[in-house]
Amino acid sequence: MLRSLILMRVKSWDYRELRERIADGYTLRQFTGFHCRPVPGHNAFHRAFVRLTPATLRAVNDLVAAAAVDLGLEDGTKLRVDTTVVQTDIHYPTDSTLLWDAVRVLSRLLDRLGKLHERRVEGFRNRTRAARRRMQALQRMSATQRLGQQTAKYRELGTAANLLMLNRLGALPTRNFQAGTFQQAESLSPQDLGDRYPRVRSSCVACTIGCEHLYDVGGTGVRVEYESLFALGSLCGVADGGAVLRASRRCDELGLDTISTGGTIAFAMECVQRGLLAEDWLTFGSGDAMMKAIELIGAREGIGQLLAEGSRRTALAIGHGSIAFAPQVKGLEIPGYEPRALQTMALGFAVGARGADHNRSGAYEVDLSDKVDRRHATRDSVRHAIETEDRAALMDSLIVCKFLRGVFDDFYSEAAIMLRAVTGWDVTAGELHETARRIVGAKREFNLLAGWTPEEDTLPERFLDTPLPGDPAAILTTDMLQQLVAEYRRARGWSAESRREQ
């Protein structure tokens, strides 16, 4: 347990990740002494560690220092001077406790400000106690309760609820991925749209979530999803919620995919902005221009004849290096997740057999968790990307809604139970997991036979080697992406040519 504690502190892992890393790694099992024995759950680690008092930890540190002196590794007389200790207002960000710290520190600062001016800050109320109670309530929530909260969010607002959250994270694609935040995002939020347009909820048969929301626009119900709001809204710089709803409805009527339509129009808008396309009316922020472009695409008239081919073919026709900022992977337009700010998702986009597809790789879930640093992908990100890709492949094969992915404690075991109940097939969790891997591999083999090349496992130049404007920490280098792709292929058991090794 002591070695596990040292490992946790050195690596800055939480209890869940500590347990997961030890269980999955031969070297860490050896180091911690668990070897082939079962690794305790995260709660067991927590119970053990809290029993270690500061005095005990000091004694352990003294013994380690003494052992280092005995072994000749240290002489015990040196003081390290290559570090600096400074006061900080809040501790390292840790989920809900960070929210409470922010309230506590702001309250303290505002209270001091009031005393300096000998009067209270107008409109300020000290809510430290309420914030602490809320933080503690969040910490006490079980995984099932958290899932219930998330399900309630989708039930109340639909997937459009993700828009403001991604905007806060700087991960909302804006003006053809030239930025990660949209200043007018509030005008596209489901809360704002719900105030202006009557809304009803719909669902698939017998669904308990009911994530589908229909807005009444001119007497016609318009289905609104996050991807439509982003693609026809922030991606095109359009802040008029009504224009976005009407554009979404027209895409449905014409049978156009809203992500590809919005992505291609946004690309064309940037080409006009750069002087590469002589369509002066097609500008960012114009809802009318967006609607006109959709009509032209549907009729294949004028510039619509070219845009109907998608952003990659449009870029190749325009030339002048425009392929560098065409928002596509393997010809499929990128969904509403900024790759530089969500780098596990960036890997999922790059290696996807279909191209950039958030339904075939749910790696954004990992980026939005505490398992990885979403702005700095490492080789650990590969394992998580593969897990979400395998799970998505099996869920699609079982015809299970992806909104249910969080309800399973052991997805493959429970999937085997469900499949056995429906078909009578005697399948195991391991067999289903292997099936998922074979599905992903079969799609890759099909691509190879159809003329695809491994060099297409990449992202447009816009997303590589240049920080996301407004967020200098969000940068993905070409070298790092290549390393991630190589590790992905190795973990999949594929050769450098991406063929499955026999």
Class by alpha and beta content: mainly alpha
Spatially, the strands of the biggest sheet line up as: 1-2-3
Rough shape?
globular
Largest sheet: 3 strands, antiparallel
As residue ranges, the low-confidence spans are 90-94
Distance between the termini: 41 Å
Proportion of beta-strand residues: under 5%
- Bin the helical content: 40-55%
- Would you list the SSEs in sequence order as H and E? HHHHHHHHHHEEEHHHHHHEEHHHHHH
> Taking all residues together, what is the mean pLDDT?
87
Number of helices: 22
Count the strands?
5
Computed Rg: 26 Å
Can you describe this structure?
By secondary structure, this protein is mainly alpha-helical. The chain has 22 helices and 5 strands. The chain has helices at about 1-10, 15-25, 25-30, 40-50, 55-70, 95-115, 130-140, 145-155, 160-170, 190-195, 225-230, 240-255, 260-275, 285-300, 305, 310-320, 345-350, 365, 380-400, 410-425, 430-450, 480-490; strands at about 200, 210-215, 220-225, 330, 330-335. α2 packs across α3, α13 (about 260-275) runs parallel beside α16 and α17 (about 345-350) crosses α19 (about 380-400).
What's this model, at a glance?
The protein contains 22 helices and five strands. The protein has helices at residues 2-11, 15-24, 26-32, 42-50, 54-70, 96-116, 128-140, 143-157, 162-168, 190-196, 226-232, 241-254, 258-273, 287-299, 304-307, 311-318, 343-351, 364-367, 380-398, 411-423, 429-449, 478-492; strands at 199-202, 212-217, 220-224, 328-329, 332-333. The longest helix is centred in the first third of the chain and has 21 residues, at 96-116.
